[in-house]
Amino acid sequence: RDWSVTGVQTCALPICIIAVAYLNKAILPTTYILLGTNLGDKAANLALATQLIAQKIGKVENRSSVYETLPWGVEDQPIFYNQVLQLSTSFAPDELLATTQSIEQMMGRKKHRHWGERLIDIDILYLDDLVYETEHLNIPHIQIPNRRFTLIPLVEIAPDLKHPVLTLSQTQLLDQCTDQDRKSTRLNSSH
Fold it and tell me: Which of 88, 133, 136, 140 is the most buried (most CB within 10 A)?
């Protein structure tokens, strides 16, 4: 029998099956998302957000530990829980933003004040090495280099990930971060 495949020489069945499976395998872009919450049951908010993201956006490939962090920007508010998720997704940037905002609304997020308290906040940090800038969305997130609460969980799961504009790893960005007085405390291990 001829088990040939377009572009592949005639070969034994097991090798052809492996070749076809490899050639047809869709490699989805990787995105990193930061979750933040400082209202209600914070651990439950992160768990529900992660579940909804997995259902609506893509497979959660990895997750950082949960970190308790002091508020950033507006300090007179409750302490935050933060966590970074690594996902595989087929979503384009605007579709990703619309879906994360839909999840925030579904969970009951209300806009109180800029950088203020929130039931859930979902920030898109990276989408592969894409550089994307619009009025409503910047990828990579423009505040990554300035926020320890973002960099610490990123370093935990993707220390060597390069920032596509600054060409520095997450570890290097954390070393250079000027937000040195903000403490982040690991609450649990992701593993």
Answer: 140
